[in-house]
Design brief:
GO cellular component, one term: plasma membrane
Pfam family, one: 7tm_2
Oligomer: single chain
Order of helices and strands: HEEEEEEEHHHHHHHHHH
Structural class: mainly alpha
Number of domains: 2
CATH topology of the largest domain: Rhopdopsin 7-helix transmembrane proteins
Strand content: 5-15%
Subcellular location: Cell membrane
CATH architecture of the largest domain: Up-down Bundle
Family: Belongs to the G-protein coupled receptor 2 family.
Shape: elongated
Radius of gyration: 31 Å
Distance between the termini: 88 Å
GO biological process, one term: cell surface receptor signaling pathway
Length: about 400
């Protein structure tokens, strides 16, 4: 089985694997142990000292082991650590591990505290970002749902797009609650059904996010190509692409992880099976980029065309400005980071994906709803109608009081 792990967990898992192998040897020795007092018993049995496994030897002999072979932790050293088998048991390691095995240069306590403070700050920032986005998205969905004149295929697609952002924000909070709520749990060895389900839900929400952005681009292109065709006939295809393709992808990924790489919490991005998720996202971004170029070309043609009235030109501009802004905004950073290994540019990756990414839902609600002229006009119209109704009620009450 593939054993891809997060780099921070490699040390823990390395020693756990060595310990498991050593304990298996000890167990087999006990099952085939010689009778007490026999010559085979006059020696030191296999022992795990927390760092290395010392194989059994007779009294008077010794064993030598090298320093643990862990990249970026111990410097390559030719020094050997020896232990002698005496009548009273194994001797102490000589030289001690801390002398024989030189550690790579690591940060000081101040660096560790600064790093911990950095991650706490990041969590506060993206928590505020996702909370702001969720509030804006729920308000935007409420506006599109409440006003009957806003009920159309275009706004229905916007609602689905908003919902994918709501799921993404909720998935981040659920993942944090499941994975990091209990500090006593070793995250490196955590492998529960709850944490795997939380990661799978998170991956689904991210996929749905990118595919509903793809649907926004496809809808815009269809609208420009087929001006006089009813767009309601395509809505179920859009729903199938936006929700169905991510669901199929995540199901394939879950089955693959269960079958070939079922360890940890599935949150390691160094596994080759991570491409089951990454490849469809890159495909959606690539197709969206092609849609972006094609829509820009068609828009330029329609604006220059003398047969298109000024009202239609303004309509085309209003329909395209939001989508054309979002397509490169949501895809560029993902493509850039996809070209590098996961351990390269971690700080920049975290900043873009967590901090800036947390405010994407707010930006979407702002562009598609709050800055939408059609929405603003409908709100003003209903606000004016409500004010007139209130003034009429006040006038009626005052008249009743006067006549009474």
């Amino acid at each position: 089985k593939v054993r891809a792990t997060h780099p921070d967990c490699s040390i823990v898992l390395y020693f756990q694997e060595r310990e498991t192998e050593c304990l298996e040897i000890i167990r087999s020795e006990r099952q085939t142990s010689a009778p007490p007092g026999s010559p085979q018993q006059q020696g030191c049995l296999t022992e795990w000292d927390g760092v290395s496994c010392w194989s059994a030897v007779p009294v008077g002999q010794s064993r030598a082991v090298a320093c643990p072979d862990i990249l970026h932790v111990f410097k390559k050293s030719k020094a050997l650590i020896r232990r002698n088998c005496t009548e009273s048991g194994w001797s102490f390691p000589s030289p001690p591990y801390y002398n024989a095995c030189e550690l790579e240069a690591v940060g000081s306590n101040n660096d560790t505290e600064a790093k911990a403070s950095y991650f706490v700050t990041m969590k506060v920032l993206y928590t505020c970002g996702y909370s702001t986005s969720l509030a804006a998205l729920f308000l935007a969905i409420g506006i599109f749902s409440c006003f009957r004149k806003l009920h159309c295929t275009r706004n229905s697609i916007h609602i689905h797009f908003f919902t994918s952002f709501i799921l993404r924000g909720a998935a981040v909070f659920i993942k944090d609650a499941v994975l990091f709520s209990d500090e006593s749990v070793d995250h490196c060895t955590m492998s529960t059904a709850n944490c795997k389900a939380a990661i799978a839900f998170f991956q689904y929400s991210v996929l749905a996010n990118f595919y509903w952005l793809l649907v926004e681009g496809m809808y815009l292109q269809t609208l420009l190509l087929l001006t006089f065709t009813s767009d309601k006939r395509y809505i179920w295809w859009y729903i199938l692409i936006g929700w169905g393709v991510p669901m199929l992808t995540v199901c394939i990924w879950v089955v693959t992880r269960l079958q070939y790489d079922d360890h940890g919490c599935w949150d390691d991005y160094t596994s080759p099976y991570w491409w089951v998720i990454k490849a469809p996202i890159l495909l959606a971004i690539f197709v969206n980029f092609l849609v972006f170029l094609n829509v820009t070309r068609m828009l330029a043609q329609k604006i220059r065309s003398p047969d298109i009235s000024k009202n239609y030109k303004q309509q085309y501009m209003r329909l395209t400005k939001s989508t054309l802004l979002l397509i490169p905004l949501f895809g560029v950073h993902y493509v850039v980071f996809a070209l590098f290994p996961e351990h390269i540019g971690v700080d920049a990756r975290l900043y873009f994906e967590l901090v800036l990414g947390s405010y994407q839902g707010f930006l979407v609600a702002l562009l598609y709803c709050f800055l939408n002229g059609e929405v603003q006009a409908e709100i003003k119209r209903n606000w004016g109608k409500w004010q007139s109704s209130m003034e009429s009620n006040v006038f009626n009450l005052a008249t009743q009081d006067f006549t009474a």
